[in-house]
Specification:
Blueprint (H helix, E strand, L loop, with lengths): L6 E4 L2 H4 L8 E6 L16 H11 E11 L10 H11 L3 E10 L14 E8 L10 E3 L4 E6 L10 E6 L2 E3 L3 E4 L21 H11 L5 E4 L6 H8 L3 E6 L2 H14 L7
Parallel strand pairs: 1-12, 2-3, 2-11, 4-10, 11-12
Antiparallel strand pairs: 3-5, 4-5, 6-9, 7-8
Helix pairs in contact: 4-5, 5-6
Length: 262
């Protein structure tokens, strides 16, 4: 099989995925062109074929993070739900349904609340082999008398327990979007839909280890590849658009010091 490691290759990912060895990828992190909400230079994608190939190339215990939303006009399309169910049908487990919440979304709706999130389906091939939980500080820490073993009599029995200084984050992740939020790379915004570098980093750190292979089969502006490289992972990137591949390559080359400044 052809070695695509450390490269961003132009081509149809449904075809290029077939050239990867089976069980060769530790983590896939991608966002598909869902519901025709962006033109992506007119390119389309064959979901079922791509999903099946992702299952084949994913290692046992590997993870696919599928960042996806739905068309809203006239109501929710629920395309994302159908995709999630299909992933289950072909053998993936829906390990978690996470939320990517946008802090500063500009898209207002006239007859419903402003949409400010996308789903992040965390799909695993068997039990995930890697989970490095991200932590955040707790509001308070130290020893306190806390309620424990409350029974049917409703009596609050308290015992002395320790509150830790940090806790595992929830599965709702908040990010600012736009220049300075998603990235400082101005060139990235030549692509119509990018996700935040911090989002990519957080998933890469959570579901993979240094030296692992991270794939983005629809890499767009190259955020997954860039952040994988910066965090000591091997990356593979595919995109069908020559324009987007050029953007992605420039971002990766700059972050690795091939160029001096952005």
């Amino acid at each position: 099989m052809e070695d695509f490691t450390g490269k961003i290759t132009c081509g149809d990912c449904a075809t290029l995925l077939k050239k990867l060895d089976s069980s060769s990828v530790d983590l896939t992190l991608t966002s598909p062109p869902y519901d025709d909400l962006r033109s992506y230079n007119g390119y389309k994608f064959e979901f079922e074929e791509i999903a099946s190939e992702l299952f084949r190339v994913t290692k046992d215990g590997g993870v696919v993070v599928w960042v996806v939303g739905d068309k809203i006009n006239g109501g929710r399309s629920l395309t994302s739900f159908r995709q999630g169910l299909y992933f289950q049908q072909i053998g993936f487990s829906m390990h978690d349904v996470m939320i990517y919440a946008k802090k500063n979304t500009p898209f207002m709706r006239s007859n419903a609340y402003t949409n400010a999130y996308e789903f992040m389906f965390v799909l695993s091939k068997g039990k995930p082999k890697t989970f490095n939980p991200l932590k955040e500080p707790t509001v308070r820490s130290g020893f306190e008398m806390l309620v424990a073993n409350k029974k049917s009599d409703g009596v609050n029995n308290k015992v002395l327990k320790e509150l830790k200084k940090e806790k595992t984050r929830t599965n709702i992740w908040h990010y600012a979007v736009g220049l300075g939020g998603s990235t400082k790379d101005r060139i990235a915004f030549k692509h119509p839909a990018i996700f935040p570098e911090n989002l990519a980093t957080d998933h890469i750190l959570s579901w993979s280890n240094e030296g692992d292979v991270v794939l983005d089969p629809m890499c767009g502006s190259g955020t997954t590849c860039k952040m994988a490289a910066l965090n000591g992972r091997k990356f593979i990137g595919f995109d069908i658009s020559e324009e987007y591949v050029a953007i992605a390559n420039e971002r990766v080359e700059r972050c690795l010091g091939v160029f001096d400044e952005y």
